[in-house]
Design brief:
By secondary structure, this protein is of the alpha/beta class. The chain has helices at residues 3-16, 31-42, 49-57, 61-68, 70-84, 102-111, 121-128, 142-157, 171-189, and strands at 20-24, 46-48, 90-93, 112-118, 162-165. The longest helix has 19 residues, at 171-189. Residues 31-32, 50, 93 line the site of magnesium ion (MG). Belongs to the shikimate kinase family.
Amino acid sequence: MDTATKKRAANVRHLIGDQTIALVGLMGAGKSAIGKKLALALKLPFVDADTEIEAAAKMPVAEIFEAYGEPEFRRLEASVIKRILESGPQVLATGGGAFMSEATRDIIHENGISLWLSADIDLLMVRVSKKTTRPLLKNPNPRAVMLDLMEKRYPVYAKANIEVASEDLTKDEMARNVINALDDHLSQHTRKDQPA
Ligand SMILES: Nc1ncnc2c1ncn2[C@@H]1O[C@H](COP(=O)(O)OP(=O)(O)OP(=O)(O)O)[C@@H](O)[C@H]1O
Ligand SMILES: O=C(O)C1=C[C@@H](O)[C@@H](O)[C@H](O)C1
Ligand SMILES: [Mg+2]
């Protein structure tokens, strides 16, 4: 990390206080990959909601979908995220569908800030093609599924406090852009008379 980014990361760490930075976005947007790098740069714990859900259910996400169906997965997801948000400061990679719940959005914004990693369809499809375990994409036409999700979800993801567009950048470049965006946002929105 260059010196300027290190300084901005230290500033973000100071301004974030005990809040959670929640990454939102579609499958393949980089919530887990960039989230880990961000946490490392900010010297904060990294928590992945999907991993926590798997630990709570003692089975992989795909099996929860198969055994209990998506509505039950969503209930579990909401309760796990609620529990995670009790223990900031941290970087949280939410699951791709979590931010669609109004209750989850509210609880994220009561306990921290949300950052949307937006991306275009071609980039997402390249990224998700590396893994075949995502239950929603076990479909003869995963691109059509992804386009449908983009249409439904992008207006909701747009409610996030910050958007960072994933162009075809390396993970380190993306992490740097995320740190800069967080620093810009927090510098503008944190009251100067309030201890951060
Ligand atoms: N900027 C990047 N450059 C190159 N590869 C990337 C980048 N961001 C993410 N990736 C890769 O793309 C794949 C998907 O990323 P990741 O698993 O972080 O997505 P996600 O948003 O967590 O998706 P999901 O909602 O399915 O968990 C991973 O293999 C990851 O290493
Ligand atoms: O976009 C979604 O709805 C999902 C994304 C993943 O993170 C997992 O939470 C699960 O595969 C569902
Ligand atoms: Mg992930």
